[in-house]
Amino acid sequence: MQTIYPLVNWNNGIIMIGVFALVCIVLVAVMIGFINSERKK
Question: Which residues span the membrane (predicted)?
Fold first, then answer.
């Protein structure tokens, strides 16, 4: 059973997961920094 999506490829899948995780980490860091800066005011 073959799928059309190239994401099934392990290399592409790992790259996509890595990029997604990196974006999530950056967003969380920005949110934490924003909350901390709001508290200081």
Answer: 14-35
Is 23 a residue whose pLDDT tops 70?
A: yes
b/e code 7-28 from CB counts within 10 Å (16+ = b): eeeeeeeeeeeeeeeeeeeeee
Cα(24)–Cα(5) distance, integer angstroms: 23
Cα–Cα distance, 4 to 24 (Å, whole number): 27
Q: Which two tokens stand for residue 39?
A: 């508290």
The pLDDT, as a whole number, for residue 22 is 95
SS3 22: helix
Distance CA 6, CA 11 (A): 10
Question: Which two tokens mark 31?
Answer: 């949110």
